[in-house]
Write a structure and sequence with these properties.
- The chain is built from 13 helices and eleven strands.
- It is of the alpha/beta class.
- The protein has one domain: Indigoidine synthase fold (3-Layer(aba) Sandwich), CATH 3.40.1790.10.
- Helix 3 packs parallel to helix 13.
- The longest helix is centred in the C-terminal third of the chain and has 29 residues.
- The chain is globular and about 50 Å long.
């Protein structure tokens, strides 16, 4: 165990006993949703993991320490802090730790900390990817590089729909990251169940996903996997509606000069406003669905390792 990692008691017991654990990110709490919906959703996601037979491990940086398994007080601290809380990816980790700072981990940041703790399954909303217009801006999320190098399976509702999904999938293919569709042959687009692109394989049972994870790492193949779980049908937003909202939000970001890691929170907030809160409800629903599936995958993977 890395000396910079602090495990919550429940998580430490589960890892010691080789029981299933699911990592959960904290950027969605600080930057993805407003207070108090952010904390409500975070606690509901933890409950969904427990209901699925696994132990939740929400990840953040607290006072220079890598915290794995936050208590309610810490989750509320991140939630109330909102966008005043630093957003932590790979490049930010050493700076924040050295300065004794506090921050919310992105997909990439959470993958790093989860791997240090020995956690192989992580549930999030959607992964980052290649931004629209990246040919000019070179704006590509660090999440993709992390998936290429860090051995964690990421359960998500595809990539965030504000991205260039075709180029995102091309990047993952180039770097050897399997994209598995859970009960679907189509890659989901966060708010929508079908992006118009396919996946590498459709698997219909968490055990099948766990077997692919084990085979990949038994073969000493570097990196993680994307487990693409479409948003529950009842909460899906029509592609035409969400594309209109995205196009408007992207133009507003350009007009206001928003760049870097501020782009995604800006776009999501604008989309929430233009959809009158429907996107926020959809976001919460897909997070809970992903948490439940991740628990099933973690349980199956723990059983395979035990065997």
């Amino acid at each position: 165990m890395n000396a910079c990692v602090d495990l919550g008691d429940e998580v430490a017991d589960a890892l010691r006993e080789r029981r299933p654990v699911v990592a959960l990110e904290s950027t969605i709490i600080a930057h993805g949703m407003p207070w108090p919906r952010n904390v409500e959703t975070a606690l509901a996601a933890e409950a969904a993991v427990r209901e699925g037979g696994a132990v939740p491990a929400t990840v953040a940086i607290l006072d220079g320490r890598l915290a794995v398994g936050l208590g309610i007080d810490a989750i509320e601290r991140i939630g109330r802090g909102g966008r005043d809380i630093a957003k932590i990816s790979r490049r930010d980790l050493p700076i924040v730790v050295a300065r004794g700072g506090t921050g919310a981990t992105t997909v990439a940041g959470t993958m790093i900390v989860a791997a240090l703790a020995g956690i192989r399954v992580f549930a999030t909303g959607g992964i980052g990817g290649v931004h629209r217009g990246a040919a000019a801006t070179f704006d590509i999320s660090a999440d993709l590089q992390e998936l290429a190098h860090t051995p964690v399976a990421v359960v998500c509702a595809g990539a965030k729909s504000v991205l260039d999904l075709g180029l995102t999938l091309e990047y993952l293919e180039t770097h050897g990251v399997p994209v598995i569709g859970y009960r679907t042959e189509r890659f989901p687009a966060f708010f929508s169940r079908d992006s118009g692109f396919g996946v590498d394989a459709q698997l219909d049972d968490p055990r099948e996903i766990a077997e692919v994870m084990k085979a990949k790492w038994d073969l000493n193949l570097e990196g993680g996997l994307v487990v693409a779980n479409p948003i529950p049908e009842a909460h899906e937003l029509p592609r035409e509606r969400i594309e209109h909202a995205i196009a408007q939000a992207v133009q507003e970001a350009r007009d206001e000069g928003v760049t870097g890691k501020a782009v995604t929170p800006f776009l999501l907030a604008r989309i929430e406003a233009s959809t009158h809160g429907d996107s926020l409800d959809a976001n919460a629903a897909l997070v809970l669905s992903n948490a439940a599936l991740a628990a099933g995958v973690a349980v199956a993977y723990a059983a395979l390792r035990g065997r």
